[in-house]
Amino acid sequence: MKLKTLAAVPVAVAGLTVILGGCAWTGGSYAALDRDRQPSDELPDVVEEAGSDMDADSARYVGEHDGVEFWLARTDEPESVCLVVYPNDTDWVTGCGGYGSRLGVGGPSGDYVLLPDGLPAPDDTTKLIDNVYLVGD
Q: In which element (H, E) is residue 34 found?
C-alpha cells in the first residue's frame, strides 16, 4: 500500500526537525530495507493514516530503545529513505532524506541520526540500534 502525500500533520509532528548532512546520493545501503517483510514491519495506524511520501510496504521495523520504536522506509524517489520515530500515537515524527546521507530527525522523544550501513558513529551520539543513533545523552 502506498501512503498519500501528507496533507495534515499531527500537532506533535509540528516540532519535527530534519537535518541533512548532504543532499547527494552517496550509494549507502540499509540492510533492513533489503530483508523480507515481517508482521512487525507494519507501521502504526496513526502513521499510515497521516499519509506521506513513504511507501508503507517498504517499511521495516528496526528496533526499540527506551519505549521508542523505529522503522525505516523508502519513498517514491529511489534516492530517498525515511526514519519513523514512534514513542506513542501523539509524539511520533518522521523524516526523509537522501539515501546514503546523514539524516537527522528530532521530536519530543529526542534527536536521532540515521546513517547507512558501515559509517562510523557521529561525534556526541550513542548507537541505539543498527543505523540509528541518539544525539546527546
A: helix 31-34
**Non-local CB neighbours of 27 within 8 Å, separated by 6+ positions:** 100
CA distance 55 to 48: 10
Q: pTM here?
A: 0.78
Cα–Cα distance for residue pair 22/114, rounded to 1 Å? 13
Per this entry, what is the length of the chain? Answer: 137
Find, among 70, 77, 116, 73, the residue nearest to 93 by Cα.
70
The model's pLDDT over 28-75, given as tens digits with 9 standing for 90+, comes to 789 999 999 999 999 999 998 876 788 999 999 999 999 999 999 998
Distances (CA, A) of 113 to 30, 110, 124: 14, 10, 11
**Domain range list for the chain:** 11-135
